[in-house]
Specification:
Blueprint: E1 4-12, E2 16-25, H1 33-36, E3 42-51, H2 61-83, E4 98-102, H3 105-113, H4 124-137, E5 144-148, H5 155-162
Parallel strand pairs: 1-4, 4-5
Antiparallel strand pairs: 1-2, 2-3
InterPro entries: RT_RNaseH
Protein name: Reverse transcriptase RNase H-like domain-containing protein
Region (Disordered): 166-190
């Protein structure tokens, strides 16, 4: 609707990343985490919790936080594109219809800028960021705004980032098909 927006919350723990997608009444400038708890103002649409592999668990905290946003945006990208009008980056008339909330200031600023380290060939981290930048480049037309929320008010995303009961011991990256289903059995066609 005209006066609705998508709100995404994300968090990372030592062992996993998690997030949630809400449909909210109001504009992105007015929504905060308290509104997400009010059923008259928001509806929970989806959640995810994804275990980090042994290599990902060694990342810096801000990398895990950025990865949580990246994972959630990948998960809901098609829905967000289909339900929001793409804009030209920097268009002053564009009204953001997607709100991203994170409790990490470093993640928030890195996500806004998404700059590569000096030499993209110098390290594994640089190559990882290069891949992430390539993914994020296609999202630049989405009408989103990213805001900071206090860690204590990001409790649901924090729970989702700790939901995984045991860390993955795999050394290979997991796929979207391997995300936690929150204990629900996998769907099988009859």
């Amino acid at each position: 609707g005209v006066n609705t927006c998508w709100t995404l919350i994300f968090d990372a723990s030592e062992d996993a990343v998690g997030g949630a997608l809400y449909r909210c009444k109001g504009s992105t400038s007015d929504i905060d985490t308290e509104d997400l708890k009010d059923p008259a103002k928001s509806s929970l649409v989806g959640v995810f919790s994804k275990a980090l592999d042994v290599h990902q668990r060694g990342w810096a905290v801000y990398e895990k936080e950025i990865y949580s946003v990246l994972t959630g945006m990948r998960k809901w990208y098609r829905l967000l594109v289909a339900t929001t009008k793409p804009t030209t980056k920097g268009d002053p008339m564009a009204v953001p219809k997607i709100l991203i909330l994170t409790d990490s200031m470093v993640c928030m600023y890195r996500w806004r800028d998404f700059k590569l380290p000096e030499s993209p060939l110098s390290s594994v981290k640089s190559r990882r960021f290069l891949g992430w930048c390539e993914t994020v480049a296609s999202w630049q037309a989405l009408p989103y705004v990213i805001k900071h929320c206090k860690g204590m008010s990001n409790d649901f995303a924090d729970l989702l980032s700790r939901w995984v009961s045991r860390p993955s011991t795999s050394t290979r990256p997991s796929t979207d098909d391997e995300e936690s289903t929150m204990g629900a059995p996998p769907y099988k066609k009859p």
